[in-house]
Amino acid sequence: MTSEWVTDVLGEPFDQLTIPLGTDDEGDIFATVVRLLPEHAILGGIFGDHRPFHDIDVLYVHGWSDYFFQKRLARFWASRGARFFALDLRKYGRSLRPGQTPGYIADLHDYDADIGAALEAMGRGTDGAGERRLVLMGHSTGGLTLSLWAARHPEHIAAVVLNSPWLEFQLSATTRAAISPVLGIHSRYRPFDLWPQTDLGFYTRAQSEVADPDDPVEVNLAWRPAQTMPVHVGWMHAVIAGHAAVAAGLGITVPVCVLLSARFVPPTRWAEELTSADTVLVVDDIARAALKLGRSVTIERIDGALHDVFLSRHDAREDAYSRLERWTTAMLAR
What we know:
Order of helices and strands: EEEHEHEHEHEHHHEHEH
Number of helices: 9
């Protein structure tokens, strides 16, 4: 089913595995799993591994116009004993092939094949079953995708951690409900028509402005362009269907942590305030939508955070990691 693990583009000790998923109208489809395994615990063979997450597997899924490159995040989990895995979904990042429409999917449920293949590569069942506890972690659209998956596969998940998940349409739930029927018809007949959008590259610039020179983050602009990849009507219809499912209530049975910036600033022109706010999602709307995810939802609002809270300026980023550690320790440590 799969090729062999090889050294990833991030360099050692990161490995990657390419997984074939069949074909569609654009050719062969692949998913790619990146892993970082924890170092062996000192004297672990004699006294056991007492790190807090020694029996945990983490599966991370990126957002729209994105791929996995967050080495710091992987090291957060691995340093505490967890096995960390990140999935580049079909037609994103490492999985994108020439001639394919970047990021395109007509139904978010189709990603079940990608997620199931990644779980198998982790030594688990396609439904997440395994001897180790499973934590799902998703950013933006990846957070939406994993939330939907978690609601349909609740048996083998220990927790869900979401980094600015895209849970609601930016122009309000009322607008979503109004345009959804028209969008459904449009996507049925002309799914590859472009969805109107304006991206002036300010989010990418904000990340560059707050980057830590002592701990740089390298990004492949072919996989994560400065201005977002083209958005197609069929893809937007799939996302809005996901938003509607969230609004109806997902009923996730395990604890959920949602990390969000404290405020949203529309990126209509460049200003310094764009370096300390989410410029992609209306975070108050996301916070309200998050309450529909399940029975136990914690919302962490982080002053000065960007859309990807773990790519924020130093103080906000450290606050995000501190909150993540506090929540995961309370919910997962044994």
